[in-house]
Design brief:
The complex is a heterodimer of chains A (about 290) and B (about 280).
Chain A (H helix, E strand, L loop, with lengths): L1 H10 L9 H17 L4 H15 L10 H17 L14 E6 L6 H14 L4 E6 L6 H12 L12 H15 L3 E6 L7 H14 L3 E7 L6 H12 L3 E5 L9 H9 L3 E5 L7 E3 L2 H9 L1
Parallel strand pairs in A: 1-3, 1-4, 2-3, 4-5, 5-6
Antiparallel strand pairs in A: 6-7
Chain B lengths: L8 H13 L4 H16 L6 H17 L13 E6 L6 H14 L4 E6 L6 H12 L2 E3 L7 H14 L4 E6 L7 H17 L6 E7 L5 H13 L3 E5 L9 H9 L3 E5 L7 E3 L2 H8 L2
Parallel strand pairs in B: 1-4, 1-5, 2-3, 2-4, 5-6, 6-7
Antiparallel strand pairs in B: 7-8
The chains are: A alpha/beta (about 290), B alpha/beta (about 280).
Bound molecules: guanosine-5'-triphosphate (GTP) (2 copies) and magnesium ion (2 copies).
C-alpha cells in the first residue's frame, strides 16, 4: 500500500522532526505513482503533487505519526478538500418543475441512474417524471420505460421517430399539467467530439433551461476523463457529476480528474445495478480509495 | 515528431507523458522509457526519429506476441461467448459480428442470455433483425444457462454456422455473477464438447488500469481467447491492452469504431500503435 511504500522510504530518514525538501521529493514520487496507477490524469497529478509539495515543506511531523504517515495525511486532506466542499444535493430552487438532464458517454450508466434518481427523489417527497430522450440506441426507450414500470413511476411515452428536443418540450408541458415536480431527462450516450450530437444537447438546454445538467461518468474511466468532462462542461455548463459502477474495484482517479477540470460537485455515486444503488458522494472515502 | 531532433530529458519526459495519457499504465510506460534510456546511454539511439521507430517496434512486439493465427473454423456451430463488465459494448458488438459473419455467407444465431437487464433481450432482437440473424430468447428473468442450452439444441436443426451468445454485463469482482458465468460455460461444454470455441472479452477503450483487473479475473474464471476493444472512435487510446496482451497473451481480435453495424474492424497493430502517437 502507499502507506507501506512511504514508510519504507522514510525509514532511512527517521530522526527528522520535519518533512524536508529531500524526503518530500522521494515521498511525492511514490504519491505520484499511486495516483497515476489510480487513473488520475497525468497533468492533474502534476498540479496536485506541486500543491502538496508546497503544503508539506517545513511541516512538523506529529509525534503520533511517522514522516510517511504525515505526508499521507497531507495528501489525503488535499484530495478530500479538492473533491469535496460543495453542495451535493439536487438543486430544487428557482424553477418549477425542476428538471435534471443526464448526459455522458455511451454506456456510462445514464438510463439506470435516471431510474435510481427517480426512486431516491420520490423517497424525499418529490413527484418525479422520467423522460426517455434517447431515440438512437435500440430499445433505449423501452429500457427506461421498463425501469419506470418497475418503480411504478410515470414516464413520457416517447417513440423513436420523435426528435429528442420535441420529447423534452412536450414532457415539460405534460409534467406541469400533471404536477410532476421533478423531470429527469435521459439522453443518448454520445462522444464529446460528436458536434452534431453535442449541438443536440445544447438545443435541449436552451429550450428547457434545466435546473441540473449532470455528467454521468464511469468510475473506471482512464486518462481520457479530463477530455470528456472538459468538453461536456464547455459545451453545456454542467452543474454536477455522478460517478457510476463504484461497486467495482476501480480506484476511481477519474473522480479527481473530472473535479479538477470542471470544478463541479460530484453529487452521487452509483454502487450497483439495482435501482436502490445510489449513494451520496463522500470525498474523504474517495480520497482513501484513490490512494489505495 | 514532438519537433525535436536530439534526445534529451525533456523528450523522454514528453514521451512518458504520451504513453501514460494513452493509458499504457505507469509500469509499462516506465519500462519502455527505461529501455530507451539504456539504448541512448550505449549510443545505440542517436536521434528522435530513430527513437520513435524503436519505441513503436517495442510496443508492436508487446502487442504481437499472442497474435497466433485464428483457428480454422471447423466446428458447427462455431460458438462465441461474449463477456465483459457493464456497458462496454457487448450487445452492439454482437450485432456487428453477426453482420460480418452474414456478409461471409454464414448462418448466424444470436442467443439472448442477458436475462437480467431491462430491455436487454429487446435490444439484441433489434440487432438480430438488422443483421438477418436468428434469435433464441426466453422470458426476461429466466436462467441464462437454460437459454444457452435451448440455443445449442436449436442450432443443430437450423444448421447454424456461427452462434454468438450475449451475456449480461457483470463486474469481475462480483463472485456470484462470475459463478453464473462459469455455469453458462459448463452447460455449453457439456452440451457441445469443445465449445465455446471463442470467449471474447469486450473492453471499453475509455477504461483505465481497471481493465487489467477485468482481464485477469475473467481469464481465471472462464479463460479468454480474444478481446474486442470498443469506442476507439472517441479520444481514448485504449493503451491498457498493450499490458494485457503482453502479460496474459490474449490477442485483440476486433475494434469497435462507432455505433453502427458496420463499425467493426479487425485489429491492426500498426494502425493502433500509430494512433497512440497522434
Ligand atoms: N455494477 C454497476 N452497474 C451499473 C451501474 N450503473 C449502471 N450500471 C450498468 O451499466 C450498464 C450500462 O448502463 P446504462 O444505464 O444502459 O448506460 P447508459 O449510459 O444509459 O448507456 P447508453 O444509453 O448506451 O449511453 C448496464 O448494465 C447497467 O446495469 C452501477 O453503479 N454499478
Ligand atoms: N461510439 C461508440 N459507441 C459504442 C461502440 N460500441 C458500443 N457503443 C455504444 O455503447 C453503449 C453500450 O453498448 P451495449 O452494447 O449496450 O453495451 P453492453 O456491454 O451490452 O452493456 P450491458 O449489457 O448493459 O453490460 C451503446 O450506446 C452503444 O451504442 C463503439 O465502438 N463506439
Ligand atoms: Mg441509456
Ligand atoms: Mg448488453
Amino acid at each position: 500500500s502507499l502507506t507501506e511504500r512511504l514508510d519504507r522510504i522514510f525509514k532511512k530518514l527517521r530522526g527528522y522532526g520535519k518533512l524536508t525538501e529531500q524526503n518530500i521529493q522521494d515521498g511525492l514520487r511514490e504519491v505520484r505513482l499511486a495516483l497515476l496507477e489510480a487513473d488520475v490524469n497525468y497533468k492533474v497529478v502534476k498540479d496536485f503533487v506541486n500543491t502538496v509539495h508546497e503544503r508539506a515543506v517545513g511541516q512538523e511531523v506529529l509525534d503520533s505519526l511517522t514522516p510517511g504517515q504525515q505526508l499521507i495525511k497531507i495528501v489525503h486532506e488535499e484530495l478530500t478538500a479538492l473533491m469535496g466542499g460543495q453542495k451535493q444535493d439536487i438543486n430544487f430552487s428557482g424553477k418549477w418543475p425542476v428538471s435534471i438532464m443526464l448526459v455522458g458517454l455511451q454506456g456510462s450508466g445514464k438510463t439506470t441512474t435516471a431510474g435510481k434518481l427517480a426512486l431516491h427523489l420520490r423517497g424525499k417527497g418529490r413527484r418525479p417524471y422520467l423522460v426517455p430522450a434517447d431515440i438512437y440506441r435500440p430499445a433505449a426507450i423501452e429500457q427506461l420505460q421498463k425501469l419506470a414500470n418497475d418503480l411504478d413511476m410515470p414516464a413520457y411515452p416517447s417513440v423513436p421517430d420523435m426528435k429528442p428536443l420535441d420529447i423534452c418540450q412536450r414532457a415539460m408541458i405534460l409534467a406541469r399539467e400533471k404536477a410532476y415536480d421533478t423531470v429527469i431527462i435521459d439522453t443518448a450516450g454520445r462522444l464529446h467530439i460528436d458536434t452534431v450530437l453535442m449541438d443536440e444537447l445544447k438545443g435541449i438546454e436552451a429550450a428547457i433551461d434545466p435546473s441540473e445538467i449532470i455528467l454521468v461518468a464511469d468510475a473506471m474511466t482512464g486518462q481520457d476523463a479530463v477530455n470528456i468532462a472538459e468538453k461536456f462542461n464547455q459545451t453545456l455548463g454542467l452543474t454536477g457529476i455522478i460517478l457510476t459502477k463504484m461497486d467495482g474495484d476501480a480506484r476511481g482517479g477519474a473522480a479527481l480528474s473530472i473535479k479538477a477540470v470542471t470544478q463541479k460537485p460530484i453529487k452521487f455515486v452509483g454502487v450497483g445495478e439495482k435501482l436502490d444503488a445510489l449513494e451520496p458522494f463522500y470525498p474523504d472515502r474517495m480520497a482513501s480509495r484513490i490512494l489505495g | 515528431f514532438l519537433g525535436k531532433k536530439e534526445i534529451d530529458a525533456d523528450l523522454l519526459d514528453s514521451l512518458e507523458e504520451i504513453l501514460i495519457t494513452a493509458d499504457l499504465g505507469v509500469s509499462t510506460a516506465t519500462e519502455l522509457i527505461e529501455r530507451i534510456r539504456e539504448k541512448v546511454k550505449r549510443k545505440e539511439l542517436s536521434d528522435a526519429f530513430a527513437l520513435k521507430n524503436y519505441l513503436r517496434e517495442e510496443i508492436l512486439t508487446l502487442l504481437r506476441s499472442p497474435q497466433k493465427e485464428g483457428e480454422e473454423i471447423t466446428a458447427s456451430p462455431f460458438v462465441i461467448l461474449v463477456i465483459g463488465v457493464n456497458g462496454t459494448g457487448k450487445t452492439t458488438t454482437i450485432g456487428k459480428l453477426a453482420h460480418r459473419f452474414k456478409g461471409l455467407g454464414q448462418n448466424v444465431m444470436l442467443v439472448a442470455a442477458d436475462t437480467f437487464r431491462a430491455a436487454a433481450i429487446e435490444q439484441l432482437e433489434i440487432w438480430s433483425k438488422r443483421a438477418g440473424a436468428d434469435l433464441i430468447k426466453q422470458k426476461s428473468g429466466s436462467d441464462p444457462s437454460a437459454v444457452v442450452y435451448d440455443a445449442l439444441e436449436a442450432a443443430q436443426s437450423r444448421k447454424t454456422d456461427v452462434m454468438i451468445i450475449d451475456t449480461a454485463g457483470r463486474l469481475h469482482t462480483k463472485v456470484n455473477l462470475m459463478e453464473e458465468l462459469k455455469k453458462v460455460q459448463r452447460v455449453i461444454q457439456k452440451k457441445m464438447p469443445g465449445a465455446p470455441h471463442e470467449i471474447l472479452l469486450v473492453l471499453d477503450a475509455t477504461t483505465g488500469q481497471n481493465a487489467i483487473s477485468q482481464a485477469k479475473l475473467f481469464n481465471s474464471a472462464v479463460g479468454i481467447t480474444g478481446m474486442v476493444l470498443t469506442k476507439l472512435d472517441g479520444t481514448a487510446k485504449g493503451g491498457v491492452v498493450v499490458g494485457i496482451s503482453n502479460e496474459l497473451k490474449i490477442p485483440i481480435r476486433f475494434i469497435g469504431i462507432g455505433e453502427k453495424m458496420e463499425d467493426l474492424r479487425e485489429f491492426d497493430p500498426d494502425a493502433f500503435v500509430s494512433a497512440l502517437f497522434d
